[in-house]
């Protein structure tokens, strides 16, 4: 392998190790990093949904955006750009989140779940690969959302990073504007939202991942896309590294547990594990990047990617307000019946509708 491939493999190994270390320090099991779940938590913290178990401003997301911004500035790669099918991208971001919360995780968490021994995540990966393959089918037929244009002012590119700097300020200060009703920030007292690594360690981890992901262009959907189109394995090596790094640390910390049942924050409704990440893979390919890549691009000044991120946050609120998100399976406990988990009928319908809408977008946005 050449030097660049060793670099992205090493980057993946480090990110996998960081993710499991964050779990050791308090983050939810198999969720050291999850772009979709953490954006969902941010939506809850801002009161956009009231699912009490998933509310927290995740410093990791703030760190990734700011890390990508600072790195791109030093590298001379920060450019304010956008203007390509903005509303369409917003809607696509919403459906990418719906697919992720039907599965219960983004592609990054899927790899981390596999590294923890979760076989349900293998089913999800198959769906993701087929979804990317479907997206490549549309790309080969001329799919294009339109040309992105560089802005004459750089200020637009700073808006998304500044928004997250403000969220960091709110997180650090903890201001309560309405003592009677609470807020504007809401924090979980139980459930995944209450499981957090120390704030400054999480922020530092996000900054480091933002730096690494910006320099290597890390993207799982892009890796599968490139392998299908031109047999280029560069981006795939990054996620192989994440899997191996997380696997070693999971075994070392005693977190590894192989099987379908009893996996943390997961379910075994395999058709919906497959279709949830199929929708994410299809959408990410049409958008030009997975959820992690959209965060990094938004840090580089790409307002189209920032629109996708906002769409995902709004999509997370819609998922919980309209009962679209899957429930995690839970074993029976004293006086409490077992919960099978998985998405309800509304989530199932939304997932299928999302696949249909993405197919329509893929077909209609073709260059003749």
Automatic annotation (TrEMBL):
Top-level taxonomic group: Bacteria
Keyword NAD: no
Protein keywords: Membrane, Transmembrane, Transmembrane helix
UniProt KW Cell inner membrane keyword: no
Residues spanning the membrane: 56-75, 87-107, 119-139, 155-175, 195-213, 234-256, 271-292, 304-325, 345-365
InterPro entries: Seleno_YedE, Sulf_transp_TsuA/YedE
Pfam families the record matches: Sulf_transp
Protein name: Putative selenium metabolism protein, YedE family
The species this protein was found in: Syntrophomonas zehnderi OL-4
């Amino acid at each position: 392998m050449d030097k660049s491939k060793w670099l992205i493999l090493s980057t993946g190994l480090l990110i996998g190790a960081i993710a499991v270390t964050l779990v050791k320090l308090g983050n939810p099991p198999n969720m050291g990093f999850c772009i979709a779940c953490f954006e969902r938590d941010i939506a809850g913290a801002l009161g956009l949904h009231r699912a009490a178990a998933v509310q927290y401003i995740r410093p990791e997301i703030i760190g990734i955006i700011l890390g990508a911004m600072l790195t791109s500035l030093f590298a001379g790669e920060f450019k304010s750009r956008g203007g390509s099918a903005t509303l369409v991208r917003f809607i696509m971001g919403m459906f990418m989140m719906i697919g992720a919360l039907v599965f219960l995780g983004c592609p990054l968490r899927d790899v981390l779940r596999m590294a923890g021994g979760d076989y349900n995540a293998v089913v999800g990966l198959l769906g993701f690969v087929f979804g990317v393959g479907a997206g490549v089918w549309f790309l080969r037929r001329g799919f294009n959302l339109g040309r992105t244009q560089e802005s004459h002012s750089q200020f637009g590119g700073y808006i998304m990073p500044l928004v997250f700097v403000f969220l960091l300020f709110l997180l650090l200060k903890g201001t309560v504007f309405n003592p009677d009703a609470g807020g504007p920030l809401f924090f979980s007292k139980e459930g995944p939202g209450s499981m957090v690594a120390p704030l400054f360690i999480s922020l530092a981890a996000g900054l480091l991942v933002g730096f690494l992901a910006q320099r290597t262009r890390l993207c799982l959907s892009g890796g599968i896309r490139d392998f299908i189109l031109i047999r280029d394995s560069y981006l795939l090596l990054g996620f192989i590294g994440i899997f191996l790094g997380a696997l070693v640390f999971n075994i070392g910390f005693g977190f590894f547990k192989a099987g379908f049942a009893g996996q943390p924050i997961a379910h075994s409704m395999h058709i919906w594990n497959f279709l949830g990440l199929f929708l994410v893979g299809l959408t990410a390919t049409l958008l030009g990047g997975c959820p992690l890549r959209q965060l990094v691009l938004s840090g580089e000044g790409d307002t189209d990617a920032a629109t996708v991120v906002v769409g995902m946050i709004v999509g997370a609120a819609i998922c919980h307000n309209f009962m679209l998100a899957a429930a995690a399976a839970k074993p029976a406990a004293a006086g409490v019946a077992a919960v099978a988990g998985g998405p309800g009928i509304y989530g199932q319908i939304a997932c299928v509708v999302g696949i249909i809408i993405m197919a329509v977008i893929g077909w209609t946005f073709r260059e003749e």
